[in-house]
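Q: Could you fold this chain for me?
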Amino acid sequence: MRLYIRADADGKIGTGHIMRCIALAQAWKDHGGEVTFISHCEGEALRERISKEGFQFIAVNAPHPHSDDLSTTLGYLKCHSPIWLVLDGYHFTPEYQKAIRDEGIRLLVIDDMNHLSYYHADILLNQNINAPDLKYHCDEDTTLLFGTRYVLLRREFLKYQDFKRQITVQARNILVTLGGADPENVTLKVIEALKLLDEPDISVRIIIGPANSHQESLRKALPTTLFDTELLVNPPNMPELMAWADMAVSGGGSTCWELALFGLPNIIIYCAENQRPIAEKLHEKELALNLGGHTELSLKSIAAAIDKMINNQVIRAKMVSKATGQIDGQGAAGVCQAIEEVNESATFRSA
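A: Sure. Below is the predicted structure, expressed as structure tokens.
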């Protein structure tokens, strides 16, 4: 059976929706299925990644709320049966979802923050740690997949499921990753904060995604650092970099779950309001240190938090301990199983 995925990526919304859908697509392919992405995707690198994985790519020129989106998407889907569509994006309204279901197309909606008044879906997935706290309004027959047991991790991360982190006396290797787009250039703010530290022996790897438009300003900032720094654009070895690092500074998006898999002590600076609940819950569970939103933070406060993390082995050890077993790497496979179970249930009711 073919799985269709409707998700977008650009300089405003970032790349996270596409990247976690790639993880689901990989698992579906491993189950013997085929995958087609229907997407408004501005980054050539992402489109190439999708194609190299062996998935079909269909371009959407004008995404919802433009009327062409729904008509184009339904046009592709009506030609095939049976059909499952995955929707991942905050701009897909209840009306959009209902139009899909009204056509008899089975629908999996991926959400993070319960921002819609109603959800029309066969399956509603929220992979975040705060998901069980949210009160969704959805169809009576909707299957709910909530919590970190359903975290979607790409194949390259799964070989690190049994990774054991060594906790050094001082953290010397620092990973900075503020999302695939980082439209507010929070990465530059973190670089400037790092310059305030009296830590010449640290090594910093700064990760930016293919949708980041601030590469020039970031490169200009690096030569004035007193420590070893490297700017990496869309690196293919993110798991290896997470294994290399002693600590991280990240946004509050899906990267948090990749870092948790590695038990990597993490300082979160959330870059969008929808990341706030996740950051706060991770802080509450002592899985990360939440500094707050980037607009509220001074360079000195960021530098002080990083300095404390570098030199406090006890804090880092606690984060490692709390993260152990939090992410088991079976989330994408679990979602695929849920799709199959809903299919079987629907077939049984029909018969």
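A (continued): DSSP finds 13 helices and 13 strands in the chain.
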